[in-house]
Amino acid sequence: PAATPLLFDVTRYDLDLRFDFERQRVAGVVTVSARVLEDGLRELDLDADAGLRIGAVWLERDGSFPEDPPRALGFHHAEDRLTVLLDRHYGIGETLRVAIAYAGRASRLGDGVTWATLGESTPSATTMAEPFGARVWVPCHDRPDDKALWTLRVTAPAELEVGSNGVRVDRRDNPDGTATTMWASRYPIATYLVVIDISDYRVAEDLYRGLDGTAAMPVQTWAYPWNETRARTMFASTSSLLGLLAAHFGEYPFLDEKYGNCLAPIGASGMEHQTLTSVAGGDGPGDNGVLDWRSVRYLDVHEAAHQWWGDWVSPASWKDLWLNESFASYAELLLAEADGRLQSYMAFDDWRGWFRGPLYDNPEPFSATIYSKGARVLRMLERLMGRERLERALGRWRERFGGGSATTADLEEVLEATWGSDLSWFFEQWVYGTGRPHLRWSWKRAVGPAVRLELEQVQTNAGLFRFPLDVEVRTAAGRELHSVEVEAVRSRTFEIPVDGEPEEVRLDPDHWLLAEQHPASAPDLDFGPAFDGEIVFPPVVTGGAATVRVPVTNLGGSVLEILGSDSTEEGTFGVDLGPDGLALDPGASGELAFRFTPSEVGVAHGWIELDTNDPAGGGVAWVELRGAGVTSEGVAVRATGRVRWTEPVAVGSAAERLITITNAGTEPARVTARIEGAGFSLPGATSMDVAPGEAAPVLVRFAPPGEGSFEGRLHLEPAGGAPVTVALLGYGAAAPRLAVEPGVVLFGIVAPGEERRRVVRVTNRGQAPMTVSAVSVEGHFSVAAPRLPRTLGA
Ligand SMILES: [Zn+2]
Asked: Topology of domain 637-733, per CATH?
């Protein structure tokens, strides 16, 4: 199941980007080099967020036609799509280089650039992009199956450090108080793994010595002045963790470059940017993010493992996300094993894990299923194939797909080739399938001596599973470990010959199998086939109530009692057990009535703990509940009545505000946003679907057309509901504005040794005087500027 076919393959990006911290804007040029994969290509479709302003696009010839001057190209930019109109039809195999000049705040809802001030005064700008956010800060071909080489030239205030992917090849100071840092990568990078981190960083360096002991690769920790020492201590074991991973997965894939952890004000705890992981660094002295944890060892190994799985072998599409997260979580299990605490690590995971839905194309992509179930599925594969063979297969996997992208089907093929046998049944039940086995079992002594094991698969929310099962038998003489092959049948009896008289039997003592198990004599609570651990209520008008009834069955061998319950959202979510609780005989069914009584508008989420005498989970069954509180029937959209830009905005610049709209009705609302008033615009989406009780942001930009106050109106029009108007008020302040014409200077063909001059006119289009203090050029060009600084009147 491939994504839309690639019409072209981007081979490299050369980015030259300036970060203006005062105005919180980036401006620069990205040059995209591509190879054409489809005959007759006439347009280049790239991804570029609507919030970016595209200034110009031009065609750069490749080295074979150096005499051709660059040529300006037409383009369309709407929503998040940038369509570049090429100068002619291009055939398969042809290459082209397109340069795009752009600018903007490059920020949207946690994606793109996060502009921040840490503590009192430390500036910070940092990018985040997984899964679709790269386009928010740089126009690109934003899909994980089109990886490319990157060079990043970043200009920022000279007192700050710039971290990025690959190797730092240059840093030079500019006359205007900025410095330009250049990073380059020798290995292709997926767009979502490209990063720029800028702040007052202190970089500590350690060494990783490769598997053969000879390489000496830097392992860096990027921290702030106030937590430099702590960061160094917390990440002291990073290079030994790389060694552990290399021993299992093969050599670190980017050995010619580096690995690093860089503190950044990100929402997630970690993000595996290629060769420079971002870790949550808090918002200043007093909040050190993950450094305030007791240990970052398992976060560290998880993110480092992504360098192999996710970064070196990338997912072909986001449906294959488990290829990243399950493998990185499996690495946590390998570390827990090395630390001698595998069983307790898995026990925690088992308790937390809800194992809901498939690994492939999970509707909740960053859910516990992808992480916890995925790691355990890989461990089951290890049990099935043997560790040595699994690691050999992973070696082939990285050899074949390293530097590129792969699908779930590709993984299955590599595993089958190494194991020499079909694995489609394994992928069907564990990767594409949902649920897990629920085993009811008992044993008896048999002549021989032998153990007679009766095994039944009683799960109601999944099909039947096939798996190898370890059986531990304790005898007077000690412990015997046996193994049986369980087929996908409802029930099976095994006769296992043993050496001594059996005293006790345990199934799967090392927890290889992702199963719930119940001795047949115990009570066993089952919620039926429709229940996947979560109850979703319909929208409820505040003050009202909704009830969802869930059937429960006792699949066990003795009376099941549900003794009591506890709700994390007392008053909002509850369950009716009656005064004496609920008691069910073996095989009997009953019903639990879950209640939702919202007191306020908005999305509610909680858990109910049921206390039972079912031994699974220590007698506790968790039920997750979700609902939305609303105020009226039908469609009802709400927003604040008035929004003011509190700071004056300089003429010639723009400032954006997010306005939150809430759907307080019982029906989903499709809302169209329309804006009125000079200076106000909607740079982002103008139409959105808002579920009952949920909120959605609308991005509004104010770019004052002159000095003074400006008023506007944001009209929110829900289909089938009453429109809502938000009054907008902004103040434009005088500002200088630099205009340069032409934007692209074309020199044409110039013979070697000759010189050609072009005049570039600099105008102040603003409303306040402007001072030009420096002019510089790069490459085979020079500039003759008038005496500087020079002030241009308004
Ligand atoms: Zn991860």
From this structure: Immunoglobulin-like (2.60.40)
321 Cα to the center of ligand 1, angstroms: 10
Ligand 1 centroid – CA 299 distance (Å): 9
In the chain, ranges of CATH 2.60.40.1730 domains: 1-200
**CA-to-CA dists, residue 595 to 43, 377, 478, 520, 588, angstroms:** 55, 35, 52, 32, 23
Interior CA angle at 260 toward 255 and 265, to 5°? 150
Percent of the chain beyond pLDDT 90?
67
Taking 60 as the threshold, does the pLDDT of residue 178 lie above it? yes
CA of 271 to the centre of ligand 1 (A): 7
Indicate where the chain has its CATH 2.60.40.10 domain(s): 526-628, 637-733
The CATH architecture one would assign to domain 1-200 is Sandwich (2.60)
Q: Cis omega before residue 789 (within 30°)?
A: yes
pLDDT of 392 above 90: yes
Match domain 438-520 to its CATH number in 1.10.540.10, 2.60.40.1840, 3.40.640.10, 3.40.50.2000: 2.60.40.1840
CA distance 522 to 613: 9
Local structure of 289: helix, strand or coil: helix
Q: What is the bridge-based pairing of β-strands 95-104 and 53-60?
A: antiparallel
CA of 327 to the centre of ligand 1 (A): 9
**pLDDT the model gives residue 62:** 56
The verdict on whether omega for the bond into residue 519 sits within 30 degrees of 0, i.e. cis, is no
pLDDT of residue 1: 37
Centroid of ligand 1 to alpha carbon of 399 (angstroms): 22
Higher pLDDT, 670 or 67: 670
Q: What is the mean pLDDT of residues 181-204?
A: 98
The fold for domain 526-628 equals Immunoglobulin-like (2.60.40)
- Kindly indicate the confidence band of residue 351, based on its pLDDT and cuts at 50, 70 and 90: low
How many angstroms does the Cα of residue 322 sit away from the middle of ligand 1? 9
DSSP helix/strand/coil, 308: coil
CB atoms within 10 A of CB 634: 13
What's the whole-number average pLDDT of the chain? 91
- In which band, very low, low, confident or very high, does the pLDDT at 67 lie, cut at 50, 70 and 90? low
Please, which residues have CB within 8 angstroms of residue 63's CB and are 6 or more apart in sequence? none
Q: How far apart are the first and last CA of the chain?
A: 59
53-60 and 8-20: which strand pairing? unpaired
512: left (phi over 0), alpha (psi -120 to 50) or beta: alpha
Contacts of 233 (CB under 8 A, 6+ apart): none
Q: Does residue 530 surpass a pLDDT of 60?
A: yes
User: Fold for domain 314-432?
Assistant: Neutral Protease; domain 2 (1.10.390)
Q: How many helices (H) and strands (E) does the chain have?
A: 11, 53
Q: Which of 163, 28, 35, 139 is nearest to 83 (CA)?
A: 139
pLDDT digits 0-9 by tens, 109-123:
789 999 999 999 999
* Residue bearing tokens 């190494």: 418
